[in-house]
Write a structure and sequence with these properties.
This protein has about 750 residues and is of the alpha/beta class. About 30% of the residues lie in helices and about 20% in strands.
Length: about 750
C-alpha cells in the first residue's frame, strides 16, 4: 500500500495497488479477534466514524468510498518492489493477473484468487441455474423475439454472463446475418446505425410523386389499417404538354383506401408541396396539419376552390407530435427558402423514419430559428430505421450559402442603381428574399409596388401573419407609382422563370398595361432557372436588354442562393441520423443517383440504399426493406376547370396539330342515290396558306372526290369506312407534295 500526500487536503491519502483510495484501518482489539458483527461494522465505518451500510453510496468526495469492490480486479499500479517493465511483462504473461503462487495471484502484499468468482469451482449463477425458471423463460423469450439480431450490450463482454447456448460460433454466425452497415466502427470505419433490428409490424412507404421528377411531391405511409400522407404538390407542364396548366399526382390509391387515411402533413408552403391539395380534398376530406404560414397559404388555395367551409385545417409547431393511428409524426425545424419549413420524424412500430422535406443548413437565417440539428442527432442515437432526404442539390459540392449573402449583394446593387428604377423578379414564396428587398428599399428611401397575382397573395398573407415586416407608407399602388420619379421606386414582380403569362415576361414583350421598360430601368432576376426553363429565361433577358435596360442575373452577382442542401449538408444529415436504410427523395433520377452515391461513400451497404420510382411499394418490417409491389400512380393533367380529362390521346392530337396543322374535308351526299350533292370542299388551318397554294388545294379536292366516288360505287355505306378511305387517299397525296402529315378531319353530311 502506497502513501501519498494531497496538497489540497493537507492530509495523507492511502492508495492500494489498484490506484484506489482506501479508508484507514480500524483499531483491532487486543486479542486480534472480533465478532462478525463488529468486523462488519468496523469494515464499513467512514472516516468520520459514522456507520454506513455497504450498499449505500455517497457523493461527498471527502469521504472514502465504502462500496464493496469486486473480488477479481486488474491492478492499476505495480506492486511494491516491482519495476514497471517487470509488472507489464507479468500482465502480458499471466493475463493481467500478476504472478501465480500456489493457485493464487500475488501482488506483493496483496493476494486474491486467480480466477473470477463465476469461474471458481462450485460457483453457480442464478442465471444459469435450471431452478430459476422465471429468469430463464424470460431470457429464452427475449432471444427468440430478437431473431437473428442482438442488442449492442449483448455483443460485448457481457455476453459471457448469459446462458451457455450462446456459443462463440453461433454469435459469429449471427453477426454475419446482420446488415453490413450495422457492424461496429472498428470493422467498417464508416456510418453505423443505432436502429435495433427486430421484426415488427410492417410499414409501407408509397411515393406517389416527387421521384424521378421535380415537383408533384406526395408520399403515403401505411401501417396496418392506418395511412397518412406527406405533401400534395403540383408540377409545371413540360413542353410536350401543350395547353396544360399544371400536373398533379394520381389519387387513385388514396381514394381506394379512403377509410384508412388519418390525415395529411405538409412540410412547407411551396407549390410543389401544396399545389395539389385542393384537388385531393375534393376527393377525400381529411385533416390537414401544417405550420402557421403554410396553413395561411393553403387557405388562399382553398378559397379559390370554395373549400374553406369543409376543410379541416390544423396549425402545428416544431417539436409538436401528431398521432396518426398507430403512427406518430413529430415536426422538426429546418431551414429553407420559405419560413416555417419542417422535417418529419415518423414514429412507427417498425422504427423511426426521418423525412427531411426540403431543407438546407443556414446558421444565420433572415427569419426563424436555426435548423434543429440536435434533434436529428438525438434520433440518430436512438436509432433511425430509414432516412428520406432532399436530393435536389446532390450534384453541387460544398455547402449552400446563407440567405444573408443575397442581402449583402442587394446593398451593393441598390447603390449601383442610383437614379434608376429598380425591378426585381423573384419567387413569390421567397418571403425572406422579399424582406431583404423591403429593408434595402427603406434604407434608400424608395417605395415598393408589387406585380403578379401570386406575389400579391403571398405578401398579403405573410404580412398578416407577421412573417413579413413592411412599414405602413412603403407599399404603394399602381396609380401612386406613376406619380413618383423612377429613382424612388422598386418593383417586385413574378416571372423569374420566364413564364409566358408572368408580369416580367409581359413587361419584356411590351405587353404590360402599367409598366414599360426603358433604359432607365435596372432589372435584377433574383432566381436561378429551374431545369427546363433556361430557354424561356434567356428569351426574357434578351428582350429586356433590347429595350435598353440593364439586367443583372445569377451568373453575374450573388443575387440568389438555393433553398436546398448541397453535398456536405447531405453528408451531415446522414451522419447525424445514421439510418439503417436510405431512400433518396425529391429530385430527378440523376439527383437520386448522386445522393445514393453519397450514402455509399459514407459506408452504407448498397443493398440498404433504395432508389424508388413513383408507385413503388417500399415495405419494411424493421429488419429488411424491399420494393414489394406497385400502387396506382401517375400524372393527372389539369387544363382550366378540367381535371384528368386531358389524356395521352388528347395530348397526341394537340402535338399533331401544333406540328403539322389541320385539313378539314366537307361533303354532302344523298342517302338514297349515293350521289354527291355538294363539295368536296377543303379548309386548311396551320398547314399552308390557301391563297398561295390554290393549285395544290384544287388537286386535293379532285383526290377526295375520286376516293368518295370509289367508295359509293363499290357499295360502301358505312360512314366510318368512307371517312377512312378519304383520309388515306388525301394523306398520301399531301405527303407526296409537301412531306408533311397534317391532321385530316372528314365531315360528311347525309341528306
Amino acid at each position: 500500500m502506497a502513501n501519498y500526500r494531497n496538497e489540497n487536503e493537507k492530509e495523507s491519502v492511502n492508495v492500494n495497488e489498484f490506484g484506489e483510495k482506501i479508508a484507514p484501518k480500524s483499531e483491532k482489539k487486543s486479542n486480534d479477534t472480533q465478532s462478525s458483527s463488529d468486523y462488519s461494522r468496523s469494515a464499513y465505518t467512514s472516516s468520520n466514524g459514522s456507520y454506513r451500510p455497504y450498499y449505500k453510496s455517497y457523493n461527498n468526495s471527502s469521504d472514502y468510498s465504502t462500496v464493496r469492490k469486486p473480488r477479481h480486479r486488474t491492478a492499476a499500479l505495480p506492486p511494491r518492489n516491482t519495476s514497471v517493465s517487470e509488472f507489464e511483462q507479468r500482465r502480458q504473461q499471466y493475463g493481467y493477473r500478476g504472478t501465480e503462487e500456489n493457485g493464487k495471484t500475488n501482488y506483493g502484499n496483496t493476494s486474491v484468487q486467480s480466477k473470477p468468482l463465476n469461474e471458481q469451482q462450485g460457483y453457480q449463477s442464478y442465471r444459469s441455474s435450471g431452478t430459476h425458471k422465471t429468469y430463464n423463460s424470460y431470457q429464452s423469450d427475449r432471444t427468440q423475439s430478437r431473431g437473428s439480431f442482438r442488442p449492442r450490450y449483448e455483443q460485448g463482454g457481457y455476453s459471457s454472463s448469459y446462458s451457455s447456448s450462446q456459443s462463440p460460433a453461433s454469435y459469429s454466425s449471427r453477426r454475419e446475418e446482420a446488415p453490413k452497415n450495422v457492424r461496429s466502427n472498428a470493422e467498417s470505419g464508416r456510418l453505423t446505425t443505432n436502429h435495433r433490428f427486430t421484426k415488427r409490424t410492417p410499414l409501407k412507404i408509397i411515393p406517389l410523386g416527387g421521384l424521378n421528377e421535380i415537383g408533384k411531391n406526395m408520399t403515403a405511409f401505411e401501417c396496418g389499417n392506418d395511412i397518412f400522407i406527406v405533401d400534395c404538390g403540383l408540377a409545371f407542364p413540360d413542353s410536350d404538354m401543350p395547353g396544360v396548366d399544371m400536373v398533379i399526382p394520381d389519387f387513385t390509391y388514396i381514394e381506394q383506401n379512403a377509410s384508412k387515411v388519418r390525415g395529411i402533413v405538409i412540410t412547407h408552403g411551396h407549390e410543389d408541396h401544396i399545389g395539389g391539395l385542393a384537388y385531393l380534398l375534393k376527393k377525400v376530406n381529411i385533416p390537414v396539419y401544417a405550420t402557421k404560414l403554410t396553413i395561411g397559404l393553403i387557405e388562399g388555395k382553398l378559397r379559390e376552390h370554395n373549400l374553406m367551409g369543409s376543410a379541416k385545417l390544423n396549425v402545428v409547431a416544431p417539436k409538436q407530435t401528431v398521432k396518426m393511428g398507430c403512427m406518430a409524426v413529430e415536426f422538426i425545424r429546418v431551414n429553407h427558402s420559405i419560413p416555417d419549413a419542417v422535417a418529419l420524424a415518423i414514429h412507427t412500430p417498425a422504427g423511426i423514419v426521418v423525412h427531411t422535406g426540403d431543407f438546407k443548413v443556414d446558421f444565420t437565417p433572415v427569419q426563424g430559428g436555426v435548423i434543429d440539428l440536435a434533434r436529428f442527432g438525438e434520433l440518430g442515437n436512438r436509432g433511425v430505421l430509414a432516412l428520406m432526404s432532399d436530393s435536389t442539390n446532390a450534384e453541387r459540392m460544398g455547402h449552400t450559402p446563407s440567405e444573408r449573402t443575397v442581402g449583402e449583394s442587394f446593398i451593393k446593387l441598390f447603390d449601383k442603381a442610383e437614379g434608376k428604377r429598380i425591378i426585381i423578379a423573384t419567387f413569390a414564396s421567397n418571403i425572406q428574399r422579399i424582406q431583404q428587398i423591403v429593408n434595402n428599399a427603406v434604407r434608400n428611401g424608395r417605395k415598393i409596388a408589387v406585380f403578379g397575382r401570386s406575389m400579391l397573395n403571398v405578401i398579403s398573407t405573410a404580412t398578416e401573419l407577421g412573417y413579413l415586416s413592411v412599414p405602413d407608407d412603403v407599399m404603394i399602388d399602381i396609380d401612386t407609382m406613376n406619380k413618383l420619379p423612377p429613382e424612388k421606386i422598386v418593383l417586385i414582380t413574378t416571372g423569374s422563370q420566364g413564364e409566358p403569362m408572368s408580369a416580367l415576361t409581359r413587361m419584356a414583350m411590351n405587353e404590360h398595361r402599367s409598366v414599360t421598360i426603358t433604359p432607365e430601368d435596372y432589372i435584377i432576376i433574383s432566381a436561378s432557372p429551374i431545369p427546363g426553363n433556361e430557354k424561356m429565361v434567356t428569351k426574357v433577358v434578351n428582350e429586356l436588354m433590347k429595350s435598353g435596360a440593364e439586367v443583372v442575373y445569377e451568373s453575374m452577382y450573388e443575387i440568389h442562393v438555393s433553398g436546398h442542401a448541397c453535398r456536405e449538408e447531405l453528408k451531415l444529415m446522414l451522419a447525424l441520423t445514421k439510418p439503417a436504410f436510405f431512400i433518396p427523395a425529391h429530385g430527378e433520377y440523376k439527383h437520386l443517383k448522386k445522393h445514393a452515391g453519397i450514402a455509399l461513400e459514407m459506408g452504407m451497404d448498397e443493398s440498404n440504399v433504395i432508389i424508388g420510382s413513383i408507385g413503388d411499394v417500399i415495405e419494411t418490417d424493421g429488419v429488411t426493406m424491399n420494393i414489394t409491389g406497385k400502387a396506382p400512380s401517375g400524372k393527372v393533367l389539369v387544363d382550366g376547370l378540367g381535371v384528368g380529362d386531358v389524356g395521352s390521346i388528347v395530348l397526341r392530337d394537340r402535338k399533331h396539330l401544333a406540328e403539322d396543322g389541320l385539313i378539314v374535308v366537307v361533303a354532302t351526299i344523298e342517302s338514297e342515290s349515293g350521289t354527291i350533292l355538294a363539295g368536296p370542299d377543303i379548309l386548311s388551318r396551320g398547314f399552308v396558306y390557301v391563297r398561295e397554294s390554290e393549285e395544290m388545294m384544287e388537286a386535293a379536292k379532285a383526290v377526295v372526290k375520286k376516293a368518295l366516288l370509289n367508295c359509293l360505287s363499290g357499295g360502301v355505306t358505312d360512314w366510318n369506312s368512307i371517312k377512312s378511305g378519304i383520309m388515306d387517299e388525301l394523306s398520301e397525296y399531301i405527303y407526296m407534295q409537301t412531306k408533311r402529315n397534317p391532321m385530316i378531319l372528314p365531315i360528311i353530311e347525309e341528306v
